[in-house]
Amino acid sequence: MRFHHRNMAFAWTRDGSSRAVAVLLLHGLSGISSGYDEVVDDLGASADVFRLDLRGHGRSDHVPGTYSVPFYTEDVVAFIEEVIAKPVVLVGHSLGGVITHNITATRPDLVLSALCEDPPLYFCDQRLFEQSMMAGVFPILEAAMRSAQAEGEPREFYESMVADAVMPWGRAGDHMSARALQSRVDALMLGDPDVWLPAIHGGALSGYDPDARITKPMIILQADPHMGPALFPEHAARQHKVNPEIDIRMIEGAPHGIHSFLGSRERYVEAVRDIIKQGS
User: Residue 67: what pLDDT?
Assistant: First the structure.
């Protein structure tokens, strides 16, 4: 389905039961909404699940020069108001987690409860981003994605690029399902390589307050400190100090993509079920 906002078209889907609580899932930078396919299957009829491809991602329009939190936030707010038309349980990974935190802080009327999956809340300070594993990985991914698209590489090329990537925990393809791998391939084939640039050079994570007061039930899932997290332990502590009511859970053995990592996906779904209950 397509949602139109400010002369842009956004791809979105709806699954589950319309009689259940509305849940909106937001993917991360360079991701795609189909990355939640297995999570949606696990939730089944217990949720009315909406998913949206962010601008520049998946099957939504590409708008170079606008890939920053204020633009993403405006799109999501419009989608909630115009399509869902009622408050939601908001769930976001990485960039989607920052958007989730920002909307929960600034538009609590639209949020029942929220879950942020390893959100890089404090990478609005570019110096902190540069201390992360991602600072070395993002330029490589941007260049590989741009080159593969320009050369018209076949799907098999992307599959190898994703599966054979060497991560601190081993070969990436050995730790993700076949469906998760294919959704990652779709994300790289369809997305705008320009989405990487503000993250690499600064500006993607701007225009929001990471220490804003949160008044709705919220769970923050923190990746294992030894697995390349976006939310450093000291950042989790800082967030807890300004928002002591937030339930911050460190998922031992999980990398940044908690929901797609085979070793942590069940714990992720359990947390999503918890936050749905809190918003019901």
Answer: 98
Cα Dmax for the chain: 50
With vertex at residue 231, the alpha carbon angle to CA 264 and CA 80, rounded to the nearest 5 degrees, is 80
Residue of 212, 232, 234 lying closest to 222 (CA atoms): 232
Query: Contact, 233 vs 241, CB < 8 A?
Result: no
Which is nearest to 114 in space by CA: 104, 123, 124? 104
How far is 31 from 23, CA to CA, in rounded Å?
Answer: 18
| φ and ψ of 196, to 5 deg | -75, -30
Cα(12)–Cα(34) distance, rounded to whole angstroms?
A: 10
User: Taking the mean position of all CA atoms in its chain, how far away is CA 228?
Assistant: 16
Q: For residues 46-78, b (16+ Cβ closer than 10 Å) or e, as one string?
A: bbbbbbbbbbbbbbbbbbeebbbbebbbebbbe
Contact 121, 145 (CB under 8 A): no
Q: What is the DSSP letter of 36?
A: G
Q: How many CA atoms lie within 13 A of 123 on its CB side?
A: 28
pLDDT digits (tens, 9 = 90+) for 24-81: 999 999 999 999 999 999 999 999 999 999 999 999 999 999 999 999 999 999 999 9
Q: Which two tokens stand for residue 197?
A: 């640039």
Long-range contacts of 229-236 (CB under 8 A, 24+ apart): 229/118, 229/132, 229/255, 229/256, 230/94, 230/118, 230/119, 230/120, 230/123, 230/132, 230/134, 230/256, 231/118, 231/119, 231/120, 231/121, 231/122, 232/122, 232/128, 232/131, 232/132, 235/121, 235/122, 235/128
What are 144-201's pLDDT values in tens digits? Answer: 999 999 999 999 999 999 999 999 899 999 999 999 999 999 999 999 999 999 999 9
- Could you give the CA distance from residue 196 to residue 125 in angstroms, rounded to a whole number? 16
